[in-house]
TrEMBL record:
The chain crosses the membrane at residues 53-77, 148-171. Keywords: Cell membrane, Membrane, Transmembrane, Transmembrane helix. It is found in: Cell membrane. GO terms for molecular function: amino acid transmembrane transporter activity. It comes from the Bacteria. Its main location: membrane. GO terms for cellular component: plasma membrane. It is a multi-pass membrane protein. Signal peptide: none annotated. PANTHER family: ARGININE EXPORTER PROTEIN ARGO, ARGININE EXPORTER PROTEIN ARGO-RELATED. The lineage of its organism: Bacteria, Bacillati, Actinomycetota, Actinomycetes, Catenulisporales. This is Lysine exporter protein (LYSE/YGGA).
Amino acid sequence: MPIDLHLLTLFVLTTAVACLAPGPDMLFVLGVGMRGGPRAGLLATTGIATSEVIHVTVAAAGLTAFFAAVPVAFTAFRLGGGAYLVYLGVQAIRHRGAEDGALSAGDATPVSGRQAYLRGLLTNLLNPKMVTFSVAFLPQFVDPRLGWLPVQFAVLGAVLIVIEFLVDGTVGMLAGRIGGWLAHRRAARRRIDVATGGLFIGLGVRLAVER
């Protein structure tokens, strides 16, 4: 088996919880869906997923070559990635419920399907934080002792993209109802941010010290 099933299970659970939190991608899809309808929301999600394929491919190719050339660097890289996940968790808790502006209906300009896809693609592709996240997140669930690093990265990347597409695609399709729910439940959004932040902090600490 080219991938650790324990790490894969942990990755699936962590990714699912992280994707369910109202982050920038979800709020972008939500806004597009509310202005352009379900089709626009789904196409915006497709654009984001396309960008994620590029991010994951670049990160996996670069990291695989780097770890193969300098095997001892994996431990240091994993510790650095764990620290970054802790940082993201702290930031999520500190800025919980701070995305109110993204739910505003002030911009009611209709969005075509083509515009939705291109905006989703470019917004995610040109966001350096997404590259940093991919580089820090994926290696936490890779076990170099099993070999097959490209396969491990490919499996994790595929799982990440599928889960994000399912979650954000559902948000885009149901944008009107979800937007109304989030707009009137700030306390619930804060609790989601706190829970997600705590998850990332715990994950970063655990994976940094576990192996």
